[in-house]
């Protein structure tokens, strides 16, 4: 389900991050959601249709509007630049229904949240939830410099680690002093997520207590050809286009949800492959790498790829 | 829309009965002359003829008040039929909101919901209830939120927590089940509670079904039909009460099979709950005797073929293997060998 909502507020909260608020054009209430949920924002940018997923940062129970915080990615594919530069209050955008791939585990005894920079966003809605549930939590936010600290509702209890002030996060200490039954949630850069998860595993944290979220942008690469067996079409995927986008452009129906390699919706079987799949997703097991591809983020390099679409 | 509610029982003298209109709207589950498991999910949207059970999100029919009385009897005997683990409290409120909102919109003459911020007033006219309470405050309702609303809603309810890439049966109201037990299944995950189902695991059904369910989205509910058979129109066929209903299976004869043997159809739907991200799984049970089913010629013909050709292990799992010869003999009278039309609705 998608609704067309009005951008009602646009406010810079740090040099690179801007907060956006969307409301129903007739003032109707929006569906409530759960902490950690995201929405898909569809942007019509001239000829290009852009779709990006952003975590909701507003109170999950506040149905008067949805808020997101977007970091400008100058090296990105253009969605964040569109929002920063072209989107203005009054503009109507398509906003999907909230989807949660990063919910709190409500059986946890304590919630340990670790954020890097703009990775704070999913925790902002979750904080409303933990406070309402009176659940114990600990929040660490790592930033490079003080001026990166976004003017968002970050609670006083949060511990802010500023690397150029020498207060870097001591991960080992944080992870080794938590009570049993604590669940860990991490959101930030790929490098940070990997570092935290590796450290937690080394310290003996159970796998089911570890949660992370990173939406990947489709990686650019060399153009490639793909045979779509069921639709009997051969497509060329451009350097800055994803396989999913190429399928959509050719009118081949492919389900999707996060478009960031995390949800599993667009999983597609490989029928023939003479070459190498560049898997960029968080979804497939290594054992599935020769039989499946996630068209939203993954690419191909080689002579022949045939997929079941 | 007005419904006239039957005065009937689902135990003892079994005075349950379907009106001709209820028979025609019975969700006959077979769209062809054979049956095998499938992940037969579809969007839960209003479809079918005007009086179809699919028209409204939570179907209310002529059995409503009697089913609610039967649920109250079962709960009084065994309160463990309704359970909710502590972390499912928010999901209970989600479910209450979902049902109240849908019923008030779909049946404005029967149910009304007035919301003034967190102060809510709920009027259930058929049951004569008019309650005011504070949303999310358990102390303002006579029962927990899930129990409160499901004592007023037909069908069983499993409320599933989603975590670790799995679904967990962590809350529910289950009093009209086809031989399973919430008290036994509570806390189990999707694979654990489906373990007794023959064949399906090898067929990869569960992996696919779980994947589908984990992706059910807010405002996009899904549904499927499932079926089994029961002797006598009994809602509470739980393992706990097997001594009461198990022996009745042996009471079927060639003379009474048409009236005693019931096709039991579950309209299962799946809803993403917004605040808790849990999944609500209502299982609405419809009962129809064989002699009522055969009043629809297409259904009589088709049911004969389905039951006759069903593999032995499925007939056994569905609990009617001992009575199958009697059932097939009875139904064969109504199979004239003509082809049946596609789809589930009467011709």
**Order of strands across the biggest sheet of chain B?**
1-8-9-10-6-7-2
Main beta-sheet annotation of chain B: 7 strands, antiparallel
What percent of residues of chain A are in strands? 25-35%
Number of helices of chain B: 13
For the CA atoms, what is the radius of gyration of chain A?
Answer: 20 Å
Q: Provide the β-strand percentage band of chain B.
A: 15-25%
Low-confidence stretches of chain B: none
Round the mean pLDDT of chain A to the nearest integer and report it: 93
**Helix and strand succession of chain A?**
EEEEEHEEHEEHEHEEEHEEE
C-alpha geometry of chain B: globular
Largest chain interface and its two residue counts? A-B, 22 and 17 residues
How many runs of DSSP E, i.e. beta strands of chain B? Answer: 10
- Major beta sheet summary of chain A: 6 strands, antiparallel
What does the model show?
The complex is a heterodimer of chains A (309) and B (347). The model of chain A has no long low-confidence stretch (mean pLDDT 93). With 309 residues, chain A is α/β, with parallel strands linked by helices. Chain A is 15% helix and 34% strand. Chain A is globular, with a radius of gyration of 20 Å. In chain B, α11 packs antiparallel against α13. Chain B has 347 residues and is of the alpha+beta class. In chain B, β9 and β10 form a beta hairpin. The model of chain B has no long low-confidence stretch (mean pLDDT 94). In chain B, the strands form two sheets. Chain B has a seven-stranded antiparallel sheet. A three-stranded antiparallel sheet of chain B has the order 3-4-5, with helices on one face. Chain B starts with 19 loop residues before the first helix and ends in a 15-residue tail after the last helix. Chains A and B meet through loops of A and β6 of B.
Keywords:
heterodimer; A: 309 residues; alpha/beta; 5-stranded parallel sheet; 5 helices; 16 strands; 34% strand; globular; B: alpha+beta; 7-stranded antiparallel sheet; 13 helices; 21% strand
């Amino acid at each position: 389900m998608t609704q067309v909502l009005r951008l009602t507020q646009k406010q810079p909260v740090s040099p690179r991050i801007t907060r956006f608020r969307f409301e129903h054009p007739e003032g109707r209430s929006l569906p409530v959601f759960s902490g950690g949920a995201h929405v898909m924002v569809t942007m019509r940018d001239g000829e290009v249709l852009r779709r990006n997923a952003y975590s909701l940062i507003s109170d999950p129970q506040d149905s008067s509007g949805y808020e997101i915080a977007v970091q400008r990615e100058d090296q990105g594919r253009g969605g964040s630049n569109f929002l920063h530069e072209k989107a203005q209050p009054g503009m109507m955008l398509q906003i999907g229904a909230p989807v949660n791939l990063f919910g709190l585990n409500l059986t946890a005894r304590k919630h340990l949240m670790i954020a890097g920079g703009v990775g704070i966003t999913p925790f902002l809605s979750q904080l409303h939830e933990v406070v309402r549930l009176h659940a114990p939590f600990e929040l660490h936010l790592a930033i490079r410099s003080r001026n990166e600290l976004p003017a968002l509702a970050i609670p006083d209890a949060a511990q802010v680690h500023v690397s150029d002030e020498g207060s870097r996060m001591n991960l080992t200490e944080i992870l080794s002093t938590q009570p049993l039954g604590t669940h860990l949630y991490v959101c930030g850069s790929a490098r940070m997520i990997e570092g935290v998860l590796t450290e937690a595993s080394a310290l003996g944290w159970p796998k089911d207590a570890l949660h992370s979220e990173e939406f990947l942008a489709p990686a650019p690469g060399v153009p490639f050809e793909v045979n779509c067996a069921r639709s009997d079409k051969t497509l060329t995927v451009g350097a800055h286009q994803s396989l999913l986008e190429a399928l959509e452009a050719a009118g081949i129906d492919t389900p999707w949800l996060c478009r960031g390699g995390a949800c599993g919706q667009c999983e597609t079987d490989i029928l023939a492959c003479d070459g190498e799949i560049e898997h960029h997703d968080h979804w497939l097991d290594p054992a599935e790498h020769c039989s499946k591809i996630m068209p939203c983020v993954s690419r191909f390099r080689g002579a022949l790829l045939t997929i079941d679409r | 829309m007005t419904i006239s509610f039957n005065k009937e029982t689902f135990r003892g003298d079994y005075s349950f009965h379907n009106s001709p209109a209820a028979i025609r709207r019975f969700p006959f589950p077979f769209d062809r002359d054979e049956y095998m498991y499938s992940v037969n999910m579809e969007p839960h949207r209003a479809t079918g003829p005007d009086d179809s059970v699919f028209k409204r999100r939570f179907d209310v029919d002529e059995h409503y008040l009697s089913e609610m009385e039967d649920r109250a009897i079962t709960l009084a005997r065994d309160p463990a039929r309704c359970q909710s683990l502590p972390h499912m409290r928010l999901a209970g409120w989600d479910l209450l909101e979902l049902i109240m909102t849908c019923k008030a919109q779909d049946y404005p003459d029967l149910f009304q919901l007035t919301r003034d911020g967190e102060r809510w007033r709920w009027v259930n006219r058929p049951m004569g209830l008019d309650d005011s309470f504070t949303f999310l405050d358990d102390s303002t309702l006579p029962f927990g939120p899930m129990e409160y609303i499901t004592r007023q809603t037909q069908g069983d309810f499993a409320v599933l927590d989603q975590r670790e890439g799995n679904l967990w049966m962590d809350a529910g109201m289950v009093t009209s089940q086809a031989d399973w037990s919430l008290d036994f299944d509570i806390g189990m995950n999707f694979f654990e509670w489906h373990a007794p189902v023959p064949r399906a695991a090898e067929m990869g059904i569960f992996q696919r079904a779980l994947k589908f369910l984990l992706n059910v989205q807010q405002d996009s509910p899904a549904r499927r039909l499932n079926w089994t058979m029961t002797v006598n129109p009994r809602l509470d066929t739980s393992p706990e009460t097997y001594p009461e209903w198990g022996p009745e299976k042996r009471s079927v004869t060639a003379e009474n099979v048409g009236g005693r043997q019931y096709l039991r159809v579950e309209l299962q739907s799946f809803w993403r709950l917004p605040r808790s991200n849990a999944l609500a799984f209502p299982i609405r049970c419809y009962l129809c005797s064989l002699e009522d089913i055969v009043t629809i010629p297409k259904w009589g013909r088709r049911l004969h073929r389905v039951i006759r050709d069903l593999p032995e292990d499925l007939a056994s799992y569905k609990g009617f293997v001992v009575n199958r010869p009697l059932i097939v003999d009875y139904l064969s009278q109504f199979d004239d060998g003509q082809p049946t039309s596609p789809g589930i609705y009467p011709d």
